[in-house]
Write a structure and sequence with these properties.
This protein has helices at residues 12-26, 36-55, and strands spanning 3-6, 28-33, 60-71, 74-85. By secondary structure, the protein is α+β, with helices and mostly antiparallel strands. Helix 1 (12-26) packs across helix 2. It is globular, with a radius of gyration of 13 Å.
């Protein structure tokens, strides 16, 4: 499964479509963003994707994590958003 990488200039609707598409295929999606602008776009896209997936009967949640990413031989800290289906409590 590919990681969906988001930048500060990413179109939220395009990212939301990618999140929904990957989730439908794998029942899980991972979104990665570095920097405040990218995280902002990723969160807005996640809200849109949640709506898209709700129309298909999926209730998804997001678990944020830190991830170390190597870019140009430097380690940067990214925010990784793991999107999974909510499992109802028993």
């Amino acid at each position: 499964m590919d990681i969906i990488k988001v930048s500060g200039t990413s179109r939220t609707s395009a990212v939301a479509g990618a999140i929904a598409g990957v989730f439908r295929e794998n029942k899980r999606a991972e979104v990665q963003a570095i920097g405040a602008g990218a995280v902002n776009q990723a969160i807005k896209a996640l809200v849109l994707a949640r709506g898209y997936l709700a129309e298909d009967g999926y209730d998804v949640i997001c678990a944020p994590e830190f991830a170390d990413v190597e870019i140009d031989d430097k380690v940067r800290t990214a925010i990784k958003l793991v999107v999974e289906e909510r499992i109802p409590a028993a």
